[in-house]
Amino acid sequence: MIISLFNSKGGVGKTTTCVNLAYLTSLKYKTLLIDLDIQGASSYFFDKKVKKRNLLNKNPSKIIKSTQYKNLDIIPADTKLENYKKGLETIINQDYEFIFIDAPANINQLTKDIMRLSNLIIVPALPNILSLRTYNQLLSQNLNNNLKILLNRVEKSPLHQKVIKAIAKLPKNQYFKNYIPKSNIIEAMSFDKIPAVRKSEKIKKAYMNVLREII
Ligand SMILES: Nc1ncnc2c1ncn2[C@@H]1O[C@H](COP(=O)(O)OP(=O)(O)O)[C@@H](O)[C@H]1O
Ligand SMILES: [Mg+2]
Q1: Burial class (CB within 10 angstroms; exposed 0-12, middle 13-18, buried 19+) of 81
Q2: Structural domain tally of the chain?
Q3: Contact (Cβ atoms closer than 8 angstroms) between residue 111 and residue 103
Q4: Which domain holds residue 114?
Q5: Domain at 161, CATH number
Q6: 187 lines ligand 1 (CB under 6 A)
Q7: 183 lines ligand 1 (CB under 6 A)
Q8: Is residue 59 within 8 Å of residue 91, measured between CB atoms?
């Protein structure tokens, strides 16, 4: 199953969600994380260098790196992807039960191909009404008909609860019933490079609930 994390906005939790979900599935299934965002945040998380090496023209077995976690491999980001034309199929057709793609925030040929080849697009979004607007704009572009919004950084505030209610008015296949709370442990991930789900049972449960909506 190929799952991409996408939103045309940055800073909404694409990388954070990608890393935690990929780590969780790797506890049971052979998992590959492909960092297709040239900013390379997922690569940084797993201490992999972002290189200019034209990965789409290389033999996939040469560009897949192992991580410190047993069933979790990664294809680090590649700055050459800026000039992307085509060739995603070969790296996506690898023998993994789960492939997570950390996608870039802009819509170009690469993102269109990512969307076309994915079984599911998770759209992480911050809990405000404008996020719904962005999500509707994405839907209207018909990039993939399995695009689901996932609220991230949710607090107990009345405003956030209002957004949850607004989201619940969408068709059921367009949103995750579970959401990810705002958490210092999640925020600390870019410092300690440890998936938050390894450090907190509460956070693990939140991501597991999301995963259960997928599997
Ligand atoms: N649930 C959360 N609680 C607290 N901080 C979060 C949460 N999700 C993401 N962040 C923080 O927000 C910032 C942006 O998240 P990131 O996953 O890098 O977004 P994106 O990949 O969409 O640009 C990061 O500093 C991250 O640590
Ligand atoms: Mg990112």
Answers
A1: buried
A2: 1
A3: yes
A4: 2-214
A5: 3.40.50.300
A6: yes
A7: yes
A8: no
**pTM of the predicted model, to two decimals?**
0.96
Q: Where are the alpha helices (DSSP H) in 39-157?
A: 41-45, 60-63, 88-92, 109-117, 129-140
Q: How far is the CA of 126 from the centre of ligand 1 (A)?
A: 10
d(CA 5, CA 148): 10
Report the residue among 8, 187, 189, 207 best suited for mutation to probe ligand 1: largest number of ligand atoms under 8 A from its CB: 187
Q: Residue with structure tokens 């170009």?
A: 108
Q: Is 99 helix (H, G, I), strand (E, B) or coil?
A: strand
Q: What's the pLDDT tens digit per position in 179-196?
A: 999 999 999 999 999 999
Which atom of ligand 1 lies nearest, measured to the CA of 9?
22
Half-sphere exposure of 116 (CA within 13 A, CB side): 11
Give one word for 122, left, alpha or beta, with left for phi > 0 and alpha for psi -120 to 50: beta
Q: Residue 12 and residue 181: Cα distance in Å, rounded? A: 13
What's the CA gap between 5 and 3, in Å, rounded? 7
Placement of tokens 């979790």 in the chain: 72
Buried b / exposed e along 41-58 (16+ C-beta atoms within 10 A): bbbbbbebebeeeebbee
What's at 11, amino acid-wise? Answer: G
Give the whole-angstrom CA distance, residue 153 versus residue 131: 13
Instruction: Inform me whether the pLDDT recorded for 52 exceeds 90.
Output: no
| 106-110, 133-137, 173-177, 188-192: range with lowest mean pLDDT | 106-110
Residues near ion ligand 2 (Cβ under 5 Å): 14-15, 41
